[in-house]
């Protein structure tokens, strides 16, 4: 088996515009298209019936699909999913330098999940955040020699 396109991940959202702004403005994704998905497809897929889907291209390749059910509210947890839970745990973005993104995230209305905010581990820096709807976003860069001010060593 050979995959034919970059990997895509779908995130079911409550507020499509808010989440699109976050992933585009803060993480550099680019909105490619938006379309409706009929109940005949969304229902059997277990996604609540009729959907609106926005495809966001990740700068390094791949795609984040934001999925908004039209007919049923989507439960959103106020807290990020607990460690060790089954299912999707986080969206990981590999960056050349996470410092500008980490600096911009608090003003985007999101909160850090790491303490300290940036952690040095295994030759790279990582930082975990909750996006506007509580999904975990992991940032990773290879600048292990420079943890940055206020970050762990």
N-end to C-end Cα span = 41 Å
Mean pLDDT: 82
**Which outline best applies?**
globular
- Helical content stands at 10-25%
Q: Count every beta strand, where a strand is a DSSP E run of 2 or more residues.
A: 9
How much strand content do the residues show? 25-35%
Outline the biggest β-sheet. 5 strands, mixed
Uncertain parts = 76-80
Total number of helices: 3
Provide structural commentary:
- The protein has 153 residues and is an alpha+beta fold.
- 14% of the residues lie in helices and 32% in strands.
- The chain is built from 3 helices and 9 strands, in the order E-H-E-H-E-E-E-H-E-E-E-E.
- It has helices spanning 16-26, 39-42, 99-104; strands spanning 8-12, 30-37, 51-57, 63-69, 91-94, 111-112, 119-121, 124-130, 136-141.
- Strands 5, 6, 7, 8 and 9 form a 5-stranded mixed sheet that branches.
- The model is unreliable at 76-80 (pLDDT under 50).
């Amino acid at each position: 088996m050979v995959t034919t396109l970059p990997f895509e991940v779908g995130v079911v959202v409550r507020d499509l515009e808010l989440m699109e702004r976050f992933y585009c403005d803060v993480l550099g994704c680019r909105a490619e298209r938006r379309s409706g998905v009929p109940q005949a497809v969304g229902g059997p897929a277990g996604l609540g019936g009729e959907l609106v889907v926005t495809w966001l291209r990740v700068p390094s390749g791949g795609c984040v699909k934001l999925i908004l059910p039209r007919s049923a509210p989507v439960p959103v947890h106020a807290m990020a999913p607990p460690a060790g839970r089954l299912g999707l745990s986080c969206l990981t973005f590999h960056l050349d330098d996470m410092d500008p993104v980490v600096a911009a995230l608090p003003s985007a209305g999101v909160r850090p999940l790491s303490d300290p905010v940036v952690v040095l581990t295994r030759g790279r820096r990582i930082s975990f955040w909750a996006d506007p709807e509580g999904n975990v976003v992991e940032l990773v860069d290879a600048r292990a020699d420079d943890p940055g001010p206020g970050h762990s060593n």
